[in-house]
Amino acid sequence: MKITFGTDYGCCFVELGKTRVMAQVSCELVAPKESRPNEGIMFFNIELSPMASPTFEQGRQSELSVKLNRQLERCLRNSKCIDTESLCVVSGEKVWQIRVDVHMLNHDGNLMDAASIAAITALCHFRRPDVGIQGDEVTVYSPEERDPIPLSIYHMPISVSFSFFQQGTYLLVDPCEREERVMDGLLMIAMNKHREICSIQSSGGIMLLKEQVMRCSKIASVKVSEITELISKALENDKKARKAGGRCGFAESMPQERITALKMDETPVEMTEVTDRANDIVQKAEAPSQTVPSPVVPVPGVGQVGQGLQNTWGLEEEDEEEENDNSGEDEEVKETKMEVEQHDKEGSKQEDVVEISDSEEEEVVILHPETPDKAPKHTGPSFHQKGAAASKKKQKK
Amino acid sequence: MGNVVQRRTRGALRRCPFEVCGNMAGLELLSDQGYRLDGRKATELRKVQARMGVFAQADGSAYLEQGNTKALAVVYGPHEMRGSRSRTRHDQAVINCQYSMATFSTAERKRRPHGDRKSTEMSLHLKQTFEAAVMTQLYPRSQIDIYVKILQSDGGNYSVCVNAATLAVIDAGIPMRDYVCACTVGFVDETPLADLCYAEESGGVSSLALALLPRGGQIALLQMDARLHQDHLEALIEAAMTACKGVSKVLDEVVRQHLQEVSVLTGE
Lengths: 397, 268
Description:
The complex is a heterodimer of chains A (397) and B (268). By secondary structure, chain A is of the alpha+beta class. Helices cover 26% and strands 21% of the residues of chain A. In chain A, the strands form 4 sheets. In chain A, strands 1, 2, 3, 4, 5 and 6 form a 6-stranded mixed β-sheet that branches. Chain A has a 4-stranded antiparallel β-sheet with strand order 12-11-13-14. Chain B has 268 residues and is an alpha+beta fold. Chain B has helices at 11-21, 117-133, 157-172, 198-201, 230-265; strands at 48-52, 60-66, 69-80, 94-101, 142-152, 181-188, 191-194, 206-213, 218-225, 228-229. In chain B, the strands form 2 sheets. Chain B has a 5-stranded mixed β-sheet with strand order 1-2-3-5-4. Chain B has a 4-stranded antiparallel β-sheet with strand order 7-6-8-9, sandwiched between helices. Chain B: It comes from Sparus aurata (Gilthead sea bream).
């Protein structure tokens, strides 16, 4: 998991595996609600843009968006993690309205956790403008005049999601997108590092047992303390970087990528039994017959291209088939650049030229001085299907 | 039975003092003698009154009062998929829930009864709860509609909705695995309070809403807001489960009584 900050105060990026989420906090002065005249207002908004996943549509208010919005609201607002009374400027007239916008950039599962981490980190990172009150006058100082002050945060609620499979027999923490698609149900527990549970929400049509819930809460407390440490470290680093005057921000935090860099994922290659399988193959395969490195001249007048070793490019079955004599015609003798013809040295009159592997030349012949009547032409290379050529050879047998 | 309260509550009046005071310190949610605002003990539920078969048009309907919270639930189904045919599931019925509050249900007139985020969230939760409980495999490619309306809201909205909807589903004759009973419990002064009323809910008390299938002890939905220390979680869930079992007994009685009435009327 990676947390980075943008250039402005209150902008935070969170990468949870491949899920990427951005949160931005902004504030403005508004009139307060009538029922709460001396408290500030917090407003949360989660945007699921089609950029994150092809399943998200442009029109708002899909079920998932409502669910995430409500969960985030309950997690952060009802737990009273922010001191809203400190946001009051003039009671009954002007209070700060803090607005947290969370945007999903890439959906690879577990949007709720990433959103909650991003939101609370952005709130911790945010600085609001300082306000001065002289009598009836209220002056809002811009960041240049006076340093902006941070919000007063009581605690940091962080949500952890668990997904259930097969009627509760399997439990996974932090599901990725594929796991989310096939899960039976989801349990979200939001806790802070003081082991206080801020919110629990079960969704999906599963039945839980009390023991499962207790177990999940224990796992969640461990995870939350780790995550809280990570957040405080990230905030510390950012503060240091800003103090030192270094450049900070989203552009800086992206790793340097050259144009020639390959962006594809690494393909997992099965490497567990490579040595065993390699040994098997080596033992089962025939020993290469000709390991003589010196070039062998099959027939006078014929040069050889290659190193004199057995050709290993062709399929092994094809090799065995073609070791038989090519009786009769030998117009089609295949010769590739790295090919060696195996001979049957029994002394049959015709040369036993074996085509071992594919050649892209249609009619490749060897000029034999002693059989002038068969003076086939060496045709130019033409592209030919390997299979068709091979079948041509086989038909001759 | 100590669980089911037989007293009339004075819940409606209780809301006003709280709002006038505006702060929690002036109101004791749990007095020293262990009495709550409306005179109940910590584990007592409010009085439950219910009627089934309220409407003739619907396949199933029920009206339930829990203290001063009144809810009406109506079930249509199972019938053919209406609306988006693409949501038809070949092996199960689709459950469609809608939760709404009447504009006169709360102290201040509600300007937007449907479609706001809270209602949509409640509808989703109801749907999730009933998908777990109703035997949807028996009705493939069909749809079951559950509509719940709150007529008066005095705390525990979700729980009352679930209880009312359970009765309505039973009235409609749709088979379920078990009664779905729900209860909201809160935690004050190290004591769990069962079945919160509005004053207690808005007093910043951590509240837990639990929907339970009593016989197997399976939790269909668990939802909690506000801060609660982890160590108290177990006690709170236990209290919620006990309260739900109490509610299930009451619902069971209501169903049997209704069945008796109906069977008498048809002359069996």
